[in-house]
Amino acid sequence: MEPSVANDSVIRVNETPSTQATVFVVDDDISVRESLEQLIRTEGWRPGTFASAEDFLSFPLHTGPCCVVVDMMLPGLSGLELQGQLAEQSSMPVIFLTGRGDVATTVQAMKAGAVEFLTKPFRTQVLLTAIRGALDRSDAALREKADMRLLRTCYASLTPRQREVMMLVVSGLLNKQIAGELGISEITVKAHRGRLMRKMNADSVADLVMMAATLGLSPRIRSRHTKPQALYVDRECPSFRPSTQDHETSFLE
Fold first, then answer.
1. Above 90 in pLDDT, residue 7?
2. Is residue 232 part of a domain?
3. Which domain holds residue 176?
4. Is residue 108 part of a domain?
5. CATH of the domain at 131
6. pTM of the predicted model over 0.85
7. 113: left (phi over 0), alpha (psi -120 to 50) or beta
8. In this prediction, what percent of the chain has a pLDDT beyond 90?
């Protein structure tokens, strides 16, 4: 759950994902599942084994670093079809196993983002290397998502006026120019600017510019009769509204 925001509180949350890595195995051959489960435990990872893609998909979504080692030829949904179901889960890379691989299938799997495509029998070390790479990719994706959630939370804590000032700051305007654009005093601009920098955890204007770009904000300078617009759509929260909790005195209007 993301923290609630009140007044001028600065959000500093450690949202790094769990370091407990899980390796899922989806294979209808019980001997493969059992041997891989033992190998995974030996390497210090947590195993999860399933006999079919359907069984795996019915399992609750995993939130920590993980990957899926899946047989290409499964009863019911095939390995490729399972990969398609997981397409939106960038934090859950896929490693394919197959008893009879062909070039076309391999190309299709790799184009869809598979980490590796191994033909049985395969060398244990090759599989372990693929798993390590997949878990590193999963961990990086989870950290990126956590960083984005925190950045969105920080941005949501800004008042409408602070957003206006932020857009003009990242557009390259000086405090005096921003004051002229908004029709307020320069000292008021400085107050807004200091508060929004603290809320965004930005140490410099360069940091703020990078944050705006990451959020998909598109700043544009207005005339005195047109308010600046932040062209930002939060795809994860279409009902998003600016913070109204940070009420300001008339001094900051």
1. no
2. yes
3. 158-252
4. yes
5. 3.40.50.2300
6. no
7. left
8. 56
pLDDT of residue 1: 33
User: What integer is the mean pLDDT of 100-121?
Assistant: 74
Report yes or no on 10 lying in a domain.
Answer: no
Residue 193 lies in a domain: yes
The C-alpha atoms of residue 116 and residue 131 are separated, in whole angstroms, by: 9
- Vertex 96 angle, CA 85 and 141, to 5°: 60
- Per-residue pLDDT, 173: 94
Q: Does pLDDT of 123 surpass 70? A: yes
Indicate if 26 and 148 belong to the same structural domain. yes
Total of domains in the chain: 2
Tell me the pLDDT band of 202, cut-offs 50, 70 and 90. Answer: very high
Measured between alpha carbons, how far is 29 from 47 in angstroms, rounded to an integer?
Answer: 16
Say how many C-beta atoms besides its own lie within 10 A of residue 117's C-beta: 20
Q: Are residues 131 and 40 in the same domain?
A: yes
The 3 state secondary structure assigned to the chain is CCCCCCCCCCCCCCCCCCCCCEEEEECCCHHHHHHHHHHHHHCCCEEEEECCHHHHHCCCCCCCCEEEEEECCCCCCCHHHHHHHCCCCCCCCEEEEECCCCHHHHHHHHHCCCCEEEECCCCHHHHHHHHHHHHHHHHHHHHHHHHHHHHHHHHHCCCHHHHHHHHHHHCCCCHHHHHHHHCCCHHHHHHHHHHHHHHCCCCCHHHHHHHHHHHCCCCCCCCCCCCCCCCCCCCCCCCCCCCCCCCCCHHHC
Phi, psi of 127 (to 5 degrees): -65, -45
